[in-house]
Amino acid sequence: MAVIEFRVDRALGLPAYLQLVRQVREALRLGWLRPGDRLPTVRDVVASSGVNANTVLKAYRELEHAGLVEARQGSGTFVRASLGSVDAAVMAGLRDRLTEWVTAARAAGLEDEDVDALMRAVLAGETDNRVEGA
Known about the structure:
Helices cover 50% and strands 6% of the residues. It is mainly α.
């Protein structure tokens, strides 16, 4: 049974419940959560992240509405579906390579915002926008 520890960054500018939803979706994509795994209780999430119980309930309801989890009366909230479609070994290898790249980027002086901007540009398929001959 996998365990997820939620982190809420108040400076992120994203509502706390959406941060929780995003973290569950990412854990599902990465294979860290699988169908049948139990999510932490609302009480545990409140204690570890400092968010309001209604915030956690809102996140869990959104995940349930998306068909990713199901609430079982008296038992908790359980993962129903997976989002990952890539073999776990392939994902682990890619994660290792990305970790090496991020380490090199930080050694080169890039900050998290720089890495994020570069990653978003690559994901969007943007090419090098430098002016030729400049």
